[in-house]
Design goal:
By secondary structure, this protein is α+β, with helices and mostly antiparallel strands. It has four helices and three strands; from the N terminus they run ααβααββ. It is elongated, with a radius of gyration of 22 Å.
């Protein structure tokens, strides 16, 4: 057989095996819907490093502003909690 055909078959078979494994790991959409449950509490975590670029700082600022602006009642009654966590020192900032 031609080497190109053999390589193509090996790559195709490998891809098929990967797809079968992935499809068996992740739940089907109907399974996700069937297990849909309401949470009593939601915790929003912002993980970051000690040194942050301007984009990371902006994303953190916008995430906090979004939670504060759109979920104020839930924040007040404790249903939602927003926390920033420095992954370098594993210290909670807020």
């Amino acid at each position: 057989m031609n080497k190109k055909i053999i390589v193509g078959l090996v790559i195709g078979l490998g891809t098929l095996i990967v797809l079968v494994v992935i499809s068996s790991i992740f739940p089907k959409s109907s399974e996700v819907v069937a297990n849909n449950q309401k949470a009593d509490k939601v915790e929003v975590f912002l993980f970051h490093a000690t040194k942050r670029c301007i984009t990371c700082i902006t994303i953190g600022k916008l995430a906090g502003e979004t939670v504060n602006e759109y979920f104020q009642p839930e924040l007040r009654n404790g249903q939602i909690k927003f926390r920033e966590i420095n992954r370098d020192g594993c210290k909670t900032i807020s």
